[in-house]
Amino acid sequence: MKYKHKSPLPLFDTLKVMLEEKHEKKPSVLARIESDAPDNALSDYNVACEFLCSYRGSADTFAAYRREVERLLQWAWFVAGISLKDIKRAEIDDFLAFCQHPPKEWIGLKTVARFVDQHGTRVINRDWRPFVSKVGKVEYSAEQSPDISNWALSQKSFQAIFSILSSFFNFLIQEEYSDVNPIALIRQKSKFIRKKQSEKIRRLSDLQWEYVIETAEIMADQDAGLHERTLFVMNALYGMYLRISELTQSERWYPKMGDFQLDMDGNWWFITVGKGNKERSVSVSDEMLSALKRYRTYRNLSLLPYPGEQTPLIPKTRGAGGISSTRQIRNIVQACFDAAVKRMIEDGFTEDSERLKTATVHWLRHTGISDDVKRRPREHVRDDAGHGSSAITDKYIDVELRERHASARKKSIKPS
């Protein structure tokens, strides 16, 4: 069946709006479902809303699940002309093949909101698309535009499809809306997901990290009002392996100074809530404690936090409260990366500076873990990082890779 809408229209709003709407769905969405979607589509939509709203504890998780469920429903209703109840293994095979090569009309050039406010009403944003073509950080900095003709779904995206839709169909089974999980029936997942021998951890080199942290210190010395916060953010991301979400305020997490806590033995810990809404304690090193003291001194606070202190950990520059946008943290880190790149180029480290241009915020967590696992018991690093198993921590041990490459360095091609 040919899809009825060349440019798909969005189905699900933000988590906040969906929770406020409760059972009152948008008339524009309902009208489209009733006019163009197959039988049972409205029931599909309602159960999908229940599933998505069950992830109200994490906005990031909700966004990821919304993306995959929305793509599936768009394809099922307007391409295959079927309901969720009709999807079996063969249909999932077709859907995955569709995701590999969606119509150009389904691919956008930038991420946009699904709905926008217009005269007090939430209306459909017709620029939204289920798939988005993007360019890397270096290409974006060079003002290169995405190319739809070269678009391809990444391996990471395919992994998300399998993981998220499997959870979705398990939910449908529990709700007695479906009797099968078609994702679990796909035996040849290798057609879509390549198995890796080992996963290379993306991290900064020793030289790059040295330039980055020195740059942060220089920036703080030159403009404390703007960059003492930058220096503390860089120290926290590296020194405590924090994720960007663990520095930002959300409905489930409010990072504050009182999360630094002193135990009966005189040791400092940082209590955070991370991936999977799991709370963990991170051991605070002496240097990290010194970084905290410097930051608090700049903010005219006591040298160390007191029990129950509610002062925001990373405050907004304007207004009250802590930073609530991960984008703001990314901008803080990126400004430091950019300044470090400039210094490296000036000092003649051109190749290293080019690699630093591709770095993201999460590389700081990877770098901190990779550096620590060389000298600390891996179980200690595992618990500080919040890894579910030591096998995950083992990925950060690169000694074997170095030895493997060293043994291959002088092997000959021509016969001796």
TrEMBL record:
The keyword DNA-binding applies. Keywords: DNA integration, DNA recombination, DNA-binding. Residues 199-410 form the Tyr recombinase domain. It holds the Pfam family Phage_integrase. One of its GO terms (biological process) is DNA recombination. PROSITE patterns: TYR_RECOMBINASE. It is found in: Cytoplasm. It comes from the Bacteria. One of its GO terms (molecular function) is DNA binding. Transmembrane segments: none annotated. GO terms for cellular component: cytoplasm. This is Site-specific integrase.
